[in-house]
């Protein structure tokens, strides 16, 4: 398996591809810090411009989840998982990678423009069979099988479903998605986009998270600290509007 990774990346480079990305998964069953250090060193040695970092997530109705529930899957403790997370970030940054999003690292100029559009909560068109789009607060999906899609186009509507987001839901998504970025959320852009006072909506929450060491304010932007990034889902939940 490891040999295949090296060979395939070499093939991509020989074919002229210079924008290559890999996924790094940590907090694996039985994984030690020494193994993490070895994996990170090997990943950096690949000399590629982008990496995504994920801890192992157990899904319901899977072999791993069933084994974990029976006590037969020795996953790292949360403290060790946090140590792994901090170590990987430090090593990738030392190697010249920018930690530009909670799970993503890139060399300068190699950020994922596609994903940044989502994290900026920007609008986009979904064109083609099975494509998804987000325009004017409406998230939609087109028919999937090509014959169904073509028939739907002929009938005048390619969409199989639509979700109309309220302004509250749009503001929540602006925070959930924007806080994934290292740069965080622009308070000025938020107010221009939604016509609502950022401080009135979130001022007390931001203050509390700052006191916990999970968030910080940099000029016009609010963003998570490194500790906040590790607890990203917990932080994001605080921005659900009642």
From TrEMBL:
UniProt GO BP = porphyrin-containing compound biosynthetic process
Q: What is this protein called?
A: Heme chaperone HemW
Record keywords: Metal-binding included? Answer: yes
Q: Which controlled-vocabulary keywords does the entry list? A: 4Fe-4S, Chaperone, Cytoplasm, Heme, Iron, Iron-sulfur, Metal-binding, S-adenosyl-L-methionine
GO CC terms on record? Answer: cytoplasm
Location of the HemN C-terminal domain: 165-231
Q: Where in the cell is it found?
A: Cytoplasm
As one GO molecular function, the record gives: coproporphyrinogen oxidase activity
Q: What does this protein do?
A: Probably acts as a heme chaperone, transferring heme to an unknown acceptor. Binds one molecule of heme per monomer, possibly covalently. Binds 1 [4Fe-4S] cluster. The cluster is coordinated with 3 cysteines and an exchangeable S-adenosyl-L-methionine.
Q: List the top taxonomic levels of the source.
A: Bacteria, Bacillati, Bacillota, Bacilli, Lactobacillales
The UniProt entry, under Pfam families, shows:
HemN_C (PF06969)
The entry assigns this protein to a family as follows:
Belongs to the anaerobic coproporphyrinogen-III oxidase family.
């Amino acid at each position: 398996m490891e040999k295949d990774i090296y060979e395939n990346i070499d093939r991509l480079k020989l074919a002229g591809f210079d924008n290559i990305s890999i996924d790094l998964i940590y907090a694996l069953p039985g994984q030690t810090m020494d193994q993490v250090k070895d994996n990170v060193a090997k990943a950096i040695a690949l000399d590629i411009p982008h990496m995504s970092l994920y801890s192992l997530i157990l899904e319901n109705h899977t072999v791993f989840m069933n084994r974990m529930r029976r006590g037969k899957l020795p996953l790292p403790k949360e403290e060790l998982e946090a140590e792994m997370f901090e170590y990987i970030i430090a090593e990738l940054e030392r190697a010249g990678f920018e930690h530009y999003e909670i799970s993503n690292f890139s060399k300068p100029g190699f950020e994922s423009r596609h994903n940044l559009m989502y994290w900026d909560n920007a609008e986009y068109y979904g064109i083609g069979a099975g494509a998804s789009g987000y325009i004017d607060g409406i998230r939609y999906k087109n028919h999937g099988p090509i014959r169904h899609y073509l028939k739907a186009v002929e009938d005048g509507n390619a969409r199989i479903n639509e979700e109309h987001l309220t302004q509250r839901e749009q503001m929540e998504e602006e925070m959930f998605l924007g806080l994934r970025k290292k740069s965080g959320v622009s308070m000025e852009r938020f107010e221009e986009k939604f016509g609502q006072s950022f401080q009135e909506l979130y001022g007390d929450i931001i203050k509390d998270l700052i006191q916990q060491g999970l968030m910080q304010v940099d000029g016009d932007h609010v963003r998570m600290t490194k500790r906040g990034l590790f607890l990203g889902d917990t932080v994001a939940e605080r921005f659900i509007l009642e």
